[in-house]
Write a structure and sequence with these properties.
Elements: E1 6-9, H1 11-17, H2 25-37, E2 42-43, E3 46-47, H3 60-66, E4 77-78, H4 82-90, E5 95-101, H5 104-111, H6 115-131, E6 135-141, E7 145-146, E8 150-151, H7 154-166, E9 171-176, H8 183-195, E10 203-207, H9 214-224, E11 228-231, H10 251-261, H11 269-283, H12 290-294, E12 296-297, E13 304-305
The structure holds coenzyme A and zinc ion.
Length: 307
């Protein structure tokens, strides 16, 4: 099993979509530039969704073409339907993510479709993207629990993942959208997915640190052989109605864990912290992540890193 881990940065998309303070397009571009400088190579940049649904990302058509096209850097964008696909094409996208969930209650709220309807809406999107040779990811949100219906059986998350794979995605990402999962559930879901024939190399996890379980869940995923994890620099993505609430797993916290555990990932912690401070300042909030506050740690000297 490889010691190489892919860190899939979701700060500019998942991190910013929910923040109360909308950022100007050039501030977002600078944030992405700092992420690229830190070594991140997969950066989910924005969403081509209805601007009325996510006003904070309504500038996607201007932002995406303005991003630095460094070799080996991929900017997946969220696309829910064919109008979104047309916008993504016009803006020069070459990687997309479609997003559904385990429950009709959640998808109806989020994208106004049942799970079944969402899969039908994604079919032409994924077919078109496949024809264009784009990289394609499918999210299974609410993989462990739904805010409207409660607990979710792992078999249900696997069932939705299999449907997405049938539609052609290269990777499925199980999202703990509301941050309720614990390591034993990660063990079980991973085992069920593998039993159902999904290769470990096609599985990613997306944890939110809402209840402080995100890094423990990453550790469980790593032990099970998963090698792709989502994170948001600065730990953005908290609910705008719950000040101080933890959002996405912070990239800096993930990088610290991976470095200290001997995994390779190509991301520089000190430079991630520069980007984390930049986005926190832009949002007008203190940087509340663990490693953002403590810095990393250099075992050669005992000194903090990146503070
Ligand atoms: N890009 C831009 N505009 C879009 C669009 C897209 N991808 N999809 C739909 N629209 C517009 C339509 O043109 C229409 O505009 P109008 O009112 O001016 O005529 C309006 O949005 C409603 O379109 P409709 O097809 O009826 O969509 P809907 O109201 O059923 O909403 C989604 C469905 C998927 C478009 C919407 O719920 C959405 O974008 N959700 C995204 C939510 C999200 O990103 N959540 C976070 C990610 S987990
Ligand atoms: Zn998320």
């Amino acid at each position: 099993m490889t010691d190489r881990v892919r860190i899939y940065e979701v700060g500019p998309r998942d991190g910013l979509q929910n923040e109360a303070t909308p950022l100007a397009t050039d501030v977002k571009r600078r944030f992405v530039e700092l992420l690229v400088e830190a070594g991140l190579r997969e950066i989910e940049a924005t969403s081509f969704v209805a601007p009325s649904a996510i006003p904070a990302l309504a500038d996607a058509d201007d932002l995406l073409p303005s991003l630095p096209r460094a070799p080996g850097v991929r900017y997946p964008v969220l696309v829910p339907n064919m109008p979104g696909m047309a916008r993504a094409e016009a803006a020069g996208a070459d990687a997309i993510a479609v997003f559904t969930a385990t429950t009709d209650a959640f998808t109806t709220h989020n994208i106004r479709m049942t799970v079944e309807e969402s899969l039908a809406a994604f079919a032409p999107v994924l077919a078109r993207a496949g024809k264009l040779g784009w990289w394609r990811r499918g999210y299974v949100s609410t993989a462990f629990g739904c805010p409207y219906t409660g607990a979710v059986a792992p078999g249900r998350a696997v069932e939705v993942a299999l449907s997405l794979l049938e539609l052609g995605v290269e990777e499925v990402c199980f999202g703990d959208t509301i941050g309720v999962g614990v390591p034993a559930q990660v063990d079980e879901l991973t085992a069920r997915a593998v039993d159902a024939g999904i290769p470990l190399g096609k599985i990613a996890y997306h944890f939110h640190d809402t209840r402080g379980t995100a890094l423990a869940n990453v550790a469980a995923g790593l032990r099970a052989g998963v090698r792709c994890f989502d994170a948001a620099t600065g730990g953005t993505g908290g609910c705008p109605y719950a000040p101080g609430a933890a959002g996405n797993l912070a990239t800096e916290d993930l990088v610290y864990l991976l470095d200290a555990s001997g995994y390779e990932h190509g991301v520089d912690l000190a430079k991630v912290l520069v980007a984390a401070r930049f986005v926190a300042e832009a949002l007008g909030k203190p940087l509340a992540t663990k490693v953002g506050q403590a810095g990393g740690w250099d075992p050669a000297t005992g000194e903090p890193v990146g503070r």
